[in-house]
């Protein structure tokens, strides 16, 4: 007798979908209706599957997603663990702000992990930590020690939550996931010194059980496209801008040349980081031009 159960797609390969159910993992295929409707099931999707006693299991329904993030994509992400390297690739506040703004737009919480701290000098590390203290004050969790984080991660991730790694290629995501789940043997690769970018070493997405939730390992990507964001909404994705914007003179203030703008006032007082405001202006320019700047391609 056929029966239907619900679960989460934890991996996808060659047209097959492994679905984690309450009874374990079931390998399934998608019904033709998905192709007809141009709907592609994705890792992270909450789904309904039909179990066949002869072993012919099928996806019959994909539930509505809260988001779709990454390349290749993960659906229904609850939290991003953003891996930013201290060096190789060089630490970049601009890149950090791009990621944080993008995920703010996607309504996904972010924790920041600084990798490769052992490869920089003490003065360099101190400077980086001083910069990251600003983000910690904004409410972002900043992690420097993966051992402590790994010990607590199983209890931090709530039941059925999906966390995904993100960050520039070569920042050390696969190395981190090796630490977080020692049974994994993800391939790691040396940085490409000629491009100062990492070689993509992770080519598929898979969800791994961490406590009662899931962690996804995804390929790194350095280019984030802001052009779908409405330009007059961009300021809302800078958390400190949004918090104080009610004190601006004009409703809907874009924090440009408007008089009595509280954001610009706090930038002048150094209570809002100058680099955050500068990066906001760069992102506005990118959206206005409708394309990624050449120096970020």
Automatic annotation (TrEMBL):
Protein location: Cytoplasm
GO molecular function, one term: GTP binding
Required co-factors: Zn(2+)
UniProt-listed Pfam families: RsgA_GTPase, RsgA_N
Top-level taxon in the UniProt lineage: Bacteria
Cofactor binding summary note: Binds 1 zinc ion per subunit.
Gene Ontology CC entries for this record: cytoplasm
Keywords annotated in UniProt: Cytoplasm, GTP-binding, Hydrolase, Metal-binding, Nucleotide-binding, Ribosome biogenesis, RNA-binding, rRNA-binding, Zinc
HAMAP family: GTPase_RsgA
Quaternary structure note: Monomer. Associates with 30S ribosomal subunit, binds 16S rRNA.
Protein name: Small ribosomal subunit biogenesis GTPase RsgA
Native source organism of the sequence: Lactobacillus bombicola
């Amino acid at each position: 007798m056929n029966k239907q159960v619900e679960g989460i797609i934890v991996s996808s390969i060659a047209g097959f979908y492994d679905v984690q159910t309450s009874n374990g993992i079931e390998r399934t295929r998608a019904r033709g209706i998905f192709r007809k409707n141009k709907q592609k099931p994705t890792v992270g999707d909450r789904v309904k599957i039909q179990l066949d006693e002869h072993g012919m299991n099928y996806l019959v329904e994909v539930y509505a997603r809260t988001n779709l993030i990454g390349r290749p994509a993960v659906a229904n992400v609850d939290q991003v663990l953003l891996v930013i390297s201290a060096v190789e690739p060089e630490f970049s506040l601009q890149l950090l702000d791009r990621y944080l703004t993008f995920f703010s737009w996607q309504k996904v919480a972010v924790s920041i992990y600084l990798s490769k701290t052992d490869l920089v000098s003490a003065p360099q590390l101190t400077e980086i930590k001083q910069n990251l203290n600003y983000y910690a004050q904004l409410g972002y969790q900043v992690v420097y020690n993966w051992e402590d984080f790994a010990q607590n991660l199983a209890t931090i991730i709530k039941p059925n939550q999906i966390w995904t790694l993100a960050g520039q290629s070569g920042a050390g995501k696969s190395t981190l996931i090796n630490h977080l789940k020692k049974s994994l043997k993800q391939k790691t690769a040396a940085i490409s010194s000629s491009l100062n970018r990492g070689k993509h070493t992770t080519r598929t997405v898979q969800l791994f059980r961490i406590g009662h939730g899931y962690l996804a390992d995804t390929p790194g990507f350095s280019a984030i496209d802001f052009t779908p964001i409405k330009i007059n909404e961009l300021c809302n994705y800078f958390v400190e801008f949004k918090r104080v914007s009610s004190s601006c003179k004009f409703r809907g203030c874009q924090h440009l040349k408007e008089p009595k703008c509280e954001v610009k006032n706090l930038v002048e007082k150094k209570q809002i980081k100058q680099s955050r405001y500068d990066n906001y202006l760069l992102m506005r320019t990118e959206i206005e031009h409708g394309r990624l700047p050449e120096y970020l391609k």
